[in-house]
Amino acid sequence: MDVRTACLGILTRGDATGYEIKKLFEDGPYHYFVEASFGSIYPALGRLTEEGLVSVRAEARAKRPERKVYSITDKGRRAFVEALTGPLPEDRFRSPFLFAMTFEDLVPNEHLKAMLDHQIATAQSRLVQLEQSASATNRGQAFVCDFGRTMYATMLQYLKQRRSEFAAPVLDAAE
Q: CATH code for 3-85?
């Protein structure tokens, strides 16, 4: 999903500033789906505004600079629904951990165990976050939360099962 479409989606849930949108991508409910920086959010909001898909208003604040608050327009809502009903891009899963594991033969065993322990702790933490997250307001949100719980529970089980493989040093085939 591109940043433009993701911004439109967020704005269907309510008005927001660019900073608030960034926070939702960073550590809010959308951080699992899209990575977006200020360098991509603000240009996307600018283009959406130029195209009439989003409106913007300045909001004054005491002793602080005014802030821009973005709202989706009817045209923007239709464009968002159209984007959802068209073909979606293929899901991508990127993992620095899995990349490092492909080179496990070059990494000391103690470090491998530490990497696995970190992944286990991260998966446990994410699972707790999902279990404690606010209740879903619709079937789609419930589906996504259940999907996330299933993925992290399965990941956790897999990591715990396979960790023992790295408990002892690998013997060189020449020995």
A: 1.10.10.10
